[in-house]
Amino acid sequence: RLLSIGLLLTAGAHGAEPLTIGLNLGQTGALAPNGKAALLAMQIWVEDTNAKGGLLGRPVKLITYDDQSNPALVPGIISKLLDVDHVDLLIGGNGTNMVALAVAMQRHLTLVGLFGLGVNSEFHYPNYFSIIPAGGPNPNQAFAAGFFAMADAQTPKPRTIALVGADAEFSRNALDGARALAKAGGYRIVYDNTYPPSTADFSPIVRAIQAAGSDMVFVGSYPPDTVGMIRAANEVGLKTKLFGGGMVGLQAASIKTQLGPLLNGIVDYDFWLPVGAYNTPEAKAFLAKYQARAAAAGVDALGYYLPPFAYADLQVVGQAVAATGGTDQQKLADYLRSHTFHTLVGDISFGPNGEWKEPRVLEVQFQHVRGNDLAQFRDLTSEVVLYPPALRTGTLRYPYTAARD
User: Fold this and answer.
1) Handedness of CA 348, 351, 355, 361 (dihedral sign)
2) 210 neighbors 236 (Cβ within 8 angstroms)
3) Per-residue pLDDT reduced to its tens digit, 61-85
């Protein structure tokens, strides 16, 4: 399904040939909650940009096809965007498994991906750049850094850990990072397994973890298995001290309200919340626009997780196009590699492999969740930021078994 967004809002841009930006973006399937929210955020950027005259005096038009959260469909979509739609710019889809880096390499394109973890760790393609705060020299470890920081601060310190996740690129990358940190911290790995992405019953997995007797359980999962793992943990009565880590989906309002009190005690990553220095006037203005349209668009009601980064993704691309005066792929890559970009989520500069120079991943804990009301997540009364220290809004409830009330 094609979704085309192009608004001709200013006299200066009206009548000019649109500058087209194309991408694959999941509107159905497992990643649909995030993909739909990202699309609304990108629509808002297009509107904001066209209201200011567009880019290079041309209105911006966004062309995206639903990849159905299926990596197998991505190459065909990219070929259609490039060979049929002839888009001026291609940007990467949302999610590690959905970023078409191989196609970009084959066609010598510059590609800015959205929320892809360690996508370039093996290819080292110089013209790839990532909009995800899991940066630094070891981006795969960024998802687990806050989790291990919480463990390291305990007295006595937990000693054993179970690692589990889907047999898919994101989960493998997240588990690689957790495995490296576990070994560096002297934690003994007592369970280390993956499961097929199609897994529906997680009870046997949780029972196996329970039998291993681990002090900590780090999970690398996408939304459907995140929900399944949490339900199984509550049904089995998982006994451990820290549980969570790399569970995608717990950042979405729909999943938070769906799980409600089952979230209590879970310690998980997040990327952006309206706390401390993050809660800027620019961020507030964006969220006001987004939240006013969220219900009608059928997307995440809060918009804290992916939407600010989706907007920032296009801010980065737009600034590079404006600064270089066109869409020459190599000029764009050179500029992206050597400049800092002011965005909704703060200033972004890229390091090796196109990752952010410094990671900015939060660690949060769900505490005292009561019922399934959205308000408790809107004002963060049931979601406490634990890490980094500069943004901390509360303290860890420990161990997990005591924090589940």
Assistant:
1) negative
2) yes
3) 999 999 999 999 999 999 999 999 9
